[in-house]
Amino acid sequence: MVKGLLNTVNRRLSHDDAGKLLLRLAVGGLMLFHGIHKLIDGVDGISGMLAAQGLPGFIAYGVLVGEVVAPCLLILGVLTRPAALVLAFTMVVAWLMVGLGKTFALDTVGAWAIENLVYFFVGALAIALLGAGRYSLVGLAVKMPHSSWGVKSILLAICNFFSPGKRLSHVA
C-alpha cells in the first residue's frame, strides 16, 4: 500500500517534460538575445578576431547558426539534440576565441570570467542528453487527438521536414 501511494505521488509530482521545456526556453531564449545582437550589429567584430588568427572571416556567419538558428530550434523543440550540440560547439569556439585566457580569472564583481560560456555549454549538453520532451513542436504533433488530423498532419510534415533521420507518424 505504501509503495502504491509513493508511486502515485511520484507520478503526480513528476514534471520532467515541464523541466525540459523550461530548460529549452531558458537556454534558447537567453542565447537568442546574443544572436539578435549579432544580427543587428553584424559579425564584423568576430570576422576581425578570426582574421587576426589567420582564419577566413566568413566563418563568423557560423555564429548566427549557433546563436540564432539553434536557439530557435531549441525553443520550438525541433531537432533539439542536434541544435543543442551546435550551441555547445559554439560555446567551445567562443571559449577558444575569447575566453581561453580568462579560464582561471574573475571579472570585476568577483564572478568567474567565463561563467556565461559555461552555463550555456552545460545547459546545451543537458538538453542534448534529455531531448525536447513532450512540450515541444514534435511532442505536440505526436500527441494530438484523431479529431485534429489535418493540423496534426501539417505539424508532422513540418517536423519530418526538419528531422529527416527520424520519421514521425500518426500515432494515437
UniProtKB/TrEMBL annotation:
For the keyword tRNA processing, the answer is no
* Keywords tagged on the record: Cell membrane, Membrane, Transmembrane, Transmembrane helix
Name by which UniProt lists this protein: GntR family transcriptional regulator
Top-level lineage group: Bacteria
> Which GO CC annotations does the UniProt entry carry?
plasma membrane
Organism placement in taxonomy:
Bacteria, Pseudomonadati, Pseudomonadota, Gammaproteobacteria, Enterobacterales
Organism encoding this protein: Klebsiella pneumoniae
Membrane topology field: Multi-pass membrane protein
**Family matches, as InterPro entries:** DoxX, DoxX-like_oxidoreductase
Q: Does the keyword Cell membrane apply?
A: yes
Family to which the UniProt record says this protein belongs: Belongs to the DoxX family.
**Membrane-spanning parts:** 21-40, 60-79, 86-105, 117-137
What compartments host this protein?
Cell membrane
An example Pfam family from this entry, by short name, is DoxX
